[in-house]
Amino acid sequence: MSENNHLFSSNLKMWLAIFILAISTFTIVTAELAPIGLLTPMAESLNQSESMIGLTVTLYAWIGAISALLSSIFLGNVSKKRLLLGLIFILLVSNVLSALASSYTLLLAARVIGALSHGAFWAMIGALAMSLVPARQLGLATSIVFAGVSAASVFGVPLANFIGSQWTWQSAFWLISLLSVLSLVGILCLVPSVKANSELGVSALKQVITDPLLLKIYAATFIAITAHFTAFTFIEPYLQTSDSVSNTMIAMMLFTFGCAGLLGNFITGAFIDKYLKRLIAVAIVAIACVLVTLGIGAQALTQTAIVLLISVWGLATSSVFVGFQTWVLKTAQHRAFPASAVYVSIFNAAIGSGALLGAWLVSQFSFSVLMICSGVAIACSLVLLALAATNAVRVETLPEGESV
């Protein structure tokens, strides 16, 4: 009986640690993407254009991409728990400074500080999650941890929008600061001191970036995430231009997007180990169809139709985010840390590229063109997805000792 109690206690501690990691991922991604839901109030308050506020997302993402790569080379031997606590503390400082920023320059400085912790956080979080659970539960654990990503991408943004519309945009960053404190306390109390079992350093990084299968997954990820964020960065002003959408409904639509995303994460977690590649493919097709429809029918769509389309978008986004990350971890195995670092760099570069491309498309054309181009682009990632899936089958069926 005591052995069963001990086993239950160990499992409970393990999943509580995974849960607090999910809260941490929610916090750090919400901090990154908060300006997306606050473009209009931030632009008005700081006397900047919406495109300039969108560029704060770009800067944050690109600095995060660089810090992810550097962390896998120089921070690999630091205690993972200690490193995680330090990174969340830096995030806290960044959010407090953002809330206090009275000019665009000060806001940029605060965002740079946060971006430095962002990349390092994502480089090690996947390897840390792998070290906390048995191999047979990796898919479930990854889904829970990266539920924070999905929740932040599709729920944190509407939350920031709601707070910004009800009070001030600074209030949203104060709330993210409180979430940072919660993450700090939770990690301190619940996450054990573990050593992630992963190859480190420049040589491990070289192995990752020359792996044919990982390269295809990375390329598909870059195209899909760039296309998604090209559209998603400007979802709030897009809704503002629709004649059928009232201003009071925008926050509710973004909230619906978030709820659909969380549901999508549960669905992904249930099927990801058996149908990983199919889930990603179906999700990409769904997003492509939604974006093209939003672009073509920008003024013709009813409010109900837009809600349904946004719900499908949010549902599918979770499978894309969690799916690609899990695929990388399963493929990399003992190279999880450097493989995650490269993935994070590509993911963040894609976010930055998407925000930048979206800003250019909006300045030169219209929101309709923005949506259509994004839909076509994300559909193109299916080609690389198919090549990666074929490559994966070849690797799995090779005789022992052979390589591609």
Automatic annotation (TrEMBL):
<dbReference type="InterPro" id="IPR020846">
    <property type="entry name" value="MFS_dom"/>
</dbReference>
<dbReference type="InterPro" id="IPR050189">
    <property type="entry name" value="MFS_Efflux_Transporters"/>
</dbReference>
<dbReference type="GO" id="GO:0022857">
    <property type="term" value="F:transmembrane transporter activity"/>
</dbReference>
<feature type="transmembrane region" description="Helical">
    <location>
        <begin position="83"/>
        <end position="106"/>
    </location>
</feature>
<feature type="transmembrane region" description="Helical">
    <location>
        <begin position="172"/>
        <end position="192"/>
    </location>
</feature>
<feature type="transmembrane region" description="Helical">
    <location>
        <begin position="112"/>
        <end position="133"/>
    </location>
</feature>
<feature type="transmembrane region" description="Helical">
    <location>
        <begin position="51"/>
        <end position="76"/>
    </location>
</feature>
<feature type="transmembrane region" description="Helical">
    <location>
        <begin position="250"/>
        <end position="272"/>
    </location>
</feature>
<keyword id="KW-1133">Transmembrane helix</keyword>
<feature type="domain" description="Major facilitator superfamily (MFS) profile">
    <location>
        <begin position="10"/>
        <end position="392"/>
    </location>
</feature>
<feature type="transmembrane region" description="Helical">
    <location>
        <begin position="341"/>
        <end position="361"/>
    </location>
</feature>
<feature type="transmembrane region" description="Helical">
    <location>
        <begin position="367"/>
        <end position="389"/>
    </location>
</feature>
<dbReference type="InterPro" id="IPR011701">
    <property type="entry name" value="MFS"/>
</dbReference>
<feature type="transmembrane region" description="Helical">
    <location>
        <begin position="279"/>
        <end position="300"/>
    </location>
</feature>
<feature type="transmembrane region" description="Helical">
    <location>
        <begin position="140"/>
        <end position="160"/>
    </location>
</feature>
<keyword id="KW-0812">Transmembrane</keyword>
<dbReference type="Pfam" id="PF07690">
    <property type="entry name" value="MFS_1"/>
</dbReference>
<dbReference type="InterPro" id="IPR036259">
    <property type="entry name" value="MFS_trans_sf"/>
</dbReference>
<feature type="transmembrane region" description="Helical">
    <location>
        <begin position="12"/>
        <end position="31"/>
    </location>
</feature>
<feature type="transmembrane region" description="Helical">
    <location>
        <begin position="306"/>
        <end position="329"/>
    </location>
</feature>
<keyword id="KW-1003">Cell membrane</keyword>
<protein>
    <submittedName>
        <fullName>Major facilitator superfamily MFS_1</fullName>
    </submittedName>
</protein>
<keyword id="KW-0472">Membrane</keyword>
<dbReference type="GO" id="GO:0005886">
    <property type="term" value="C:plasma membrane"/>
</dbReference>
<feature type="transmembrane region" description="Helical">
    <location>
        <begin position="213"/>
        <end position="235"/>
    </location>
</feature>
